[in-house]
């Protein structure tokens, strides 16, 4: 489909995987970026930056799109965590700073007392475990996703 811009060559692989997954949700649900914006509360320009790999999306809009596409929330969270870690470590040229992290405790993984979603004191070993978990989830997750049908579709 010629709808999307090619992703940048310097984009970390984990981020590219997340972006491709989000693009598939939008395509499968036959939504425009304006529709996604209206249904998630994030602007069309923000969605264009996220879906073209120019900015790492915060968890909130990713989970919102996942709900619209009736995606597996656990799989999507692992994919996002892996991408967020890669963005922070390798980020594309010209980008700075880590991605936004959910401050709302309800949006953090269970058992977490920190905004990063990891137990206090967890360091690189925990981050590496997230990446390994994400790779396993990516390899085993089903690509079939239904879409939530609403009157405003």
Automatic annotation (TrEMBL):
Residues 87-129 are annotated as: Disordered. Pfam families: HTH_31. InterPro entries: Cro/C1-type_HTH, Lambda_DNA-bd_dom_sf. It comes from the Bacteria. This is Helix-turn-helix domain-containing protein. The lineage of its organism: Bacteria, Bacillati, Actinomycetota, Actinomycetes, Kitasatosporales.
